[in-house]
Amino acid sequence: MPFKKYTLKLKENNNIINQNLPRFSLSYRTKREDPRHVSYDIITALSENNDIIIELDTNFFDNKLNIDGQCFQRFIDAAKSLGLTHSSKEFASTHSYSIFGFRVDSGKKKQTQRFAVYVPHDVWKNESFKDKLPISGARYYITNYPMEAEDIVNKILTMDDKEIRTTFKLIIFDFAFYGQMGIVTDVLNKDDFHRLLGCKNDGC
Question: What is the pTM of this model?
Answer without folding.
Answer: 0.87
